[in-house]
Write a structure and sequence with these properties.
It comes from Auriscalpium vulgare. Keywords: Hydrolase. By secondary structure, the protein is an alpha/beta fold. Helix content is about 35%, strand content about 15%. It has two domains: about 180 residues, Rossmann fold; about 160 residues, HAD superfamily/HAD-like (Rossmann fold, 3-Layer(aba) Sandwich), CATH 3.40.50. The chain has a six-stranded parallel β-sheet with strand order 5-4-1-13-14-15, with helices on both faces. Strands 7-6-8-9-12 form a five-stranded parallel β-sheet, sandwiched between helices. It has a two-stranded antiparallel ribbon with strand order 2-3.
């Protein structure tokens, strides 16, 4: 968990839960305007647009309004930015397009592991272990990013079932195996792309790789940092279709480090990506600026104000605040107002994503009128 930020004193505009009708003349007068949007959005997905597989009704209206039917009367660029993942951006964006009723392209989607595209060249020709997801789905995602020699813990289990004798591979898992002799296949890095399905198997094999310095089954040595370990999602909990929040990849990281510390006396150094890390928000800033530049040109990209709309104070709000973005905390996901003030104070709170968008757009409209 992240330490709470100092409480910020800020004014919350009380907006009605249902959308106000926009003035038709106001929207029509700006139709076809080429003036740039003064803002751009990054939306979390789970708990903001979706809850499990269910689309929150406000989500479709909020995204549709960004096409021009808003107080500014302009198209507003946006991206979806999630600590989730587990599939390729092509597959996820196609699914989201169908669910949300608006076109979502891979270029508009940042998953927790998307940032690894920019790091694949470092390990393109080295052997890497990818954790998380089902069967070999994330092997294929990693290969699509540019990693050439990708293995999973299921591959290791198939090579020698005794690495973790308390679990038997299913037929579908056996069919996904990539054969290798891991006693002669040194692993250079471990990337936890998505939430692991078998924590015990994965923690055991991670420990084997690190303590044997890459060659599974070799004698254990004093641990050093020769094997790079990367986690893509720090969320301890996330909000899905169940009534209460579920443990996330951050919980797996804590479990691994607790076991590794018990074995060796100290945790293993690792790289952390995902919200709220600076690296992930810097990556998102670049993607948003590219979207704005494509729509309105580079000057607009440099001047736009960024808004993060999320449901998790520890990731969405903390990261946006640190990046200098405006942040809007919605009440449809992880954060429950009944539990007290959020650990990281947002610029604004809203009951749902539609109210969040309306508040941000009207805020920028007021600023635009004031500046002339």
């Amino acid at each position: 968990m992240f330490a709470g930020a100092p409480r910020l004193i800020h004014r919350r505009l009380r907006l009605p839960h249902r959308p106000r009708a926009l003035s038709a003349a106001r929207c029509i007068s700006n139709a076809g305007s080429t003036r740039p949007s003064p803002l751009a959005f990054a939306f979390d997905i789970d708990g903001v647009l979706l809850r499990g597989t269910k689309v929150l009704p406000e989500a479709k209206r909020a995204l549709a309004s960004l096409d021009g039917a808003n107080a500014l009367g302009v198209k507003i660029p946006y991206i979806l930015m999630t600590n989730g993942g587990g599939v390729g951006e092509d597959e996820r964006s196609a699914r989201l397009t169908k669910q949300l009723g608006v076109p979502i392209t891979p270029a508009n989607l940042i998953q927790a592991h998307t940032i690894l595209k920019s790091h694949a060249h470092e390990y393109a020709d080295k052997n890497v272990l990818v954790l998380g997801g089902r069967r070999d789905v994330l092997r294929k995602v990693a290969e699509g990013y540019g990693f050439r020699n990708v293995y999973t813990t299921l591959d290791v289990k198939s090579w020698n079932p005794n690495v973790w004798p308390f679990y038997d591979l299913t037929p579908s898992e056996v069919a996904s195996i990539k054969p290798a002799d891991f006693s002669t296949t040194p692993i250079a890095a471990i990337f936890v792309f998505h939430d692991p399905r078998n924590w015990a198997l994965d923690i055991q094999i991670m420990s084997d790789v690190i303590l044997s310095r890459g060659l599974i089954g070799a004698p254990y040595t004093s641990p050093d940092d020769s094997v790079k370990v990367v986690f893509c999602n720090p969320d301890l909990v996330w909000r899905g279709g169940f009534e209460r929040s579920r443990l996330g990849q951050g919980a797996f990281r804590e479990a691994f480090q607790a076991v590794f510390t018990a074995l060796t006396g100290k945790p293993y150094p690792h790289v952390q990506y995902g919200k709220p890390t600076t690296a992930t928000y810097d990556f998102a800033r670049g993607v948003l600026q590219q979207r704005i530049g494509e729509a309105y040109g580079e000057p607009a990209a440099r001047q736009a104000n960024f808004y993060m709309v999320g449901d998790n104070p520890e990731s969405d709000i903390a990261g946006a605040n640190a990046a200098g973005w405006s942040s809007v905390l919605v009440h449809t996901g992880v954060y429950d107002p009944a539990s007290g003030p959020p650990a990281h104070a947002p610029t604004h709170e809203a009951p749902d994503v539609e109210a969040a968008v309306r508040w941000a757009v009207e805020r920028e409209a007021v600023r635009a009128r004031a500046s002339g």
